[in-house]
């Protein structure tokens, strides 16, 4: 069903309201039969998008409300979260920063609602990766992350005015004598090896590069 403006060829063109065969509805601008410009799309599952379209795709600025209560507000390119945006997760966590291909990618800040801790730094394909700072209530860690875990040189900075320098090292897997490798061993957590405690220093993870 459609009610609204059409062009000389009879295509939806201008402002209109439509109900799609699957029960979704759209109210907004059309151009030559396609959603184009600003509009609001309501999904039958309870999701809602309000923002810009280009040739039927979410493109430009828009806000997407998900059925689980989470929400993304920011840039879209060809139906993908891409550019800069803010995501509020169903558990109350938030991410504010850069996106590419629907994933956190580039510089961004992730805040954990339960602990108040936040990760400020680089992301690659949705995973914490690169120079970053992990900020807790009374101390913070400055270093590098690889595949979501801290690795390599870094330091803990304490609010009382001192730092503990050191390195996160990847422990070596102990090989057990077994006939068959049944299961993949779980990846071990990197271990912190402290080297010295100092007053506050200007060191940052970019210094090694």
Largest sheet: 16 strands, antiparallel
Name the CATH architecture of the largest domain: Single Sheet
Shape, principal axes of CA atoms: elongated
Helix/strand-derived category reads: mainly beta
Would you list the SSEs in sequence order as H and E? EEEEEEEEEEEEEEEE
How many domains comprise the coordinates? Answer: 2
Euclidean distance between termini CA atoms: 60 Å
What is the percent of helical residues? under 10%
Mean pLDDT: 92
Biased composition (Acidic residues): 175-184
InterPro entries: MORN
Protein name: Radial spoke head 1 homolog
Region (Disordered): 1-20, 168-209
Write the layout of secondary structure elements.
Elements: E1 2-6, E2 12-19, E3 25-31, E4 34-42, E5 48-54, E6 57-65, E7 71-77, E8 80-88, E9 94-100, E10 103-111, E11 118-124, E12 127-135, E13 139-146, E14 149-158, E15 162-169, E16 191-199
Antiparallel strand pairs: 1-2, 2-3, 3-4, 4-5, 5-6, 6-7, 7-8, 8-9, 9-10, 10-11, 11-12, 12-13, 13-14, 14-15, 15-16
Please explain how this structure is put together.
The chain is 0% helix and 61% strand. With 209 residues, it is mostly beta strands. The radius of gyration is 24 Å and the shape is elongated. The model has no long low-confidence stretch (mean pLDDT 92). The chain is built from no helices and 16 strands. The N and C termini lie far apart (60 Å). The chain has two domains: 83 residues, Histone H3 K4-specific methyltransferase SET7/9 N-terminal domain (Single Sheet); 95 residues, Histone H3 K4-specific methyltransferase SET7/9 N-terminal domain (Single Sheet), CATH 2.20.110.
């Amino acid at each position: 069903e459609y009610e609204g403006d059409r062009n000389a060829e009879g295509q939806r063109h201008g402002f209109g309201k439509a109900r799609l065969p699957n029960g979704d509805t759209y109210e907004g601008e059309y151009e030559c039969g396609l959603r184009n410009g600003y509009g609001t799309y309501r999904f039958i599952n309870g999701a809602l998008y309000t923002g810009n379209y280009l040739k039927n795709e979410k493109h430009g600025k828009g806000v997407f409300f998900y059925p689980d209560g989470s929400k993304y507000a920011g840039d879209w390119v060809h139906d993908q979260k891409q550019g800069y945006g803010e995501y509020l997760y169903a558990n109350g966590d938030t991410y504010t920063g850069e996106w590419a291909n629907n994933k956190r990618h580039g510089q961004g800040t992730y805040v954990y609602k339960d602990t108040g801790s936040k990760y400020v730094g680089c992301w690659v394909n949705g995973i914490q990766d690169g120079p970053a700072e992990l900020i807790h209530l009374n101390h913070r860690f400055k270093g590098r992350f690889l595949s979501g875990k801290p690795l390599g040189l870094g330091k803990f900075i304490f609010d009382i005015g001192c730092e503990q320098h050191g390195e996160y090292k990847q422990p070596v897997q102990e090989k057990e004598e077994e006939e068959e490798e049944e299961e993949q061993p779980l990846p071990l957590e990197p271990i912190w090896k402290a080297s010295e405690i100092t007053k506050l220093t200007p060191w940052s993870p970019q210094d090694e590069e």
